[in-house]
């Protein structure tokens, strides 16, 4: 990928910045998870936890500055020359460069501001420490647009497939044949409802064999029509269950952000290569809820526990409403089931060991998925003995697959499992 190194600052420097390379470097910052903090916009409301990622324009500009230096687009020497002696003129130049880059990101449709900056009043300093511009940048929040989310999904997909040496991917292959645009097999007589992908040579041959004549114009009959066959492409409905209990970001490792990247990559893959497929995303914690893919970038970890049964119940309900050839659940988790929704709506919780009651109810939901013909493919980010046994039971009941992976190989396992899956139905 091409980068630019600036030897001398000019007001047009922001126009020469490679926005796609910059967004690629900003992916971790834009998708950072953190703990779910309090506030009216957060339905989980754990006020005693650290707030999640800073979504202010001030934090965005600092992340852009770091990304420019790390990518080589903006060298430390250039930064030092740009800042000069730290006077007001140097601060103004730096602020203008970062403002212009942010404006380009918004103009290109990758980001949006939730409220416009307020114009300064009076004679108060605009730039510099404590200036109104800095205060406004701290107050104004930014968010990813659908274009920005789709771009991050594309980059995540390219990165994952590139890591396993795969550059091309297609639809789900099946042992069946159907009429279509791609001719992958022999021709057959036309039947009502077939795509009229006419095999001219075979049609003319059939007409000549029937009439025994080469006269022009030829006498064509309905029975002479021959259409080319192509491989039957199945449609698949997928629900991606993401564990967002607190263990997904504890112990010095963020496991939730890589899971979000995989979800974006899988969504982009389905949208571009499998237009007949569908994908839905569920977060499960103390309870479970479906979220639109556009909200995935801002999703954070929390609350505490892992209500796997509620997640499976919601996933099964969503999948049964989908009229697809195949249905599947992809579950990403790192913890044992530790919560359960009671009939009266209360949440039963037990984090101490593998609770027998929680396990029993969870396996009942797993059995319901099996009865509905829905395999559960589990991607476990931990290797605790009890978890291993639980995952084995889930896979055995639903005839799904179990993968014990880490954040580095998670995406490769999930995408390859999705691409290789055939149309064999689960009885």
TrEMBL record:
Signal peptide: none annotated. CDD domains: vWFA. Pfam families: VWA_2. Residues 238-336 form the VWFA domain. This is VWFA domain-containing protein.
């Amino acid at each position: 990928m091409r980068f630019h190194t600036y030897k001398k600052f000019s007001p047009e420097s922001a126009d020469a910045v490679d926005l796609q390379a910059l967004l690629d470097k900003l992916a971790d910052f834009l998708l950072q998870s953190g703990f779910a903090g309090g506030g009216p916009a957060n339905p989980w409301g754990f006020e005693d936890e650290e707030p999640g990622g800073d979504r202010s324009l001030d934090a965005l500009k600092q992340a852009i500055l770091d990304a420019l230096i790390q990518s080589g687009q903006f060298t430390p020497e250039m930064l030092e020359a740009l800042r000069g002696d730290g006077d007001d003129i140097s601060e103004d130049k730096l602020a203008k460069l970062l403002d212009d880059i942010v404006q380009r990101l918004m103009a290109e449709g990758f980001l949006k501001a939730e409220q416009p900056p307020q114009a300064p009043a009076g004679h108060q300093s605009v730039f510099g420490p404590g200036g109104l511009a800095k205060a406004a940048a701290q107050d104004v929040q930014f968010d990813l647009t659908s274009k920005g989310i789709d771009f991050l999904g594309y980059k995540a997909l390219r990165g994952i497939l590139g890591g396993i040496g795969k550059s091309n991917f297609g639809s789900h292959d099946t042992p069946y044949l159907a009429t279509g645009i791609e001719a992958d097999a022999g021709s057959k007589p036309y039947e009502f409802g077939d795509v009229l992908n006419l095999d001219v040579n075979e049609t003319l041959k059939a007409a000549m064999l029937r009439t025994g004549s080469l006269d022009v114009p030829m006498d064509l009959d309905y029975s002479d029509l021959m259409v080319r066959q192509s491989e039957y492409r199945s449609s698949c409905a997928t629900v991606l269950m993401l564990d967002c209990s607190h263990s997904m970001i504890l112990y010095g490792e963020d496991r939730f952000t890589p899971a979000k990247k995989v979800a974006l990559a899988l969504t982009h893959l389905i949208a571009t290569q499998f237009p007949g497929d569908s994908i839905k995303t569920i977060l499960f914690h103390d309870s479970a809820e479906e979220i639109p893919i556009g909200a995935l970038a801002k999703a954070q970890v929390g609350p505490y526990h892992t209500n796997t049964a509620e997640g499976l119940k919601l996933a099964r309900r969503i999948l049964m409403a989908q009229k697809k050839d195949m249905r599947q659940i992809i579950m990403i988790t790192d913890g044992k089931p530790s919560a359960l929704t009671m009939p009266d709506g209360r949440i039963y919780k037990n984090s101490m060991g593998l609770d027998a009651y929680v396990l029993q109810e969870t396996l009942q939901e797993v059995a319901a998925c099996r009865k509905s013909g829905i395999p559960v493919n589990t991607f476990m980010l931990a290797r605790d003995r009890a978890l291993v046994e639980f995952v084995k039971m889930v896979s055995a009941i639903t005839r799904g697959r179990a993968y014990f992976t880490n954040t580095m190989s998670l995406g490769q396992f999930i995408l390859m499992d999705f691409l290789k899956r055939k149309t064999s139905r689960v009885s």
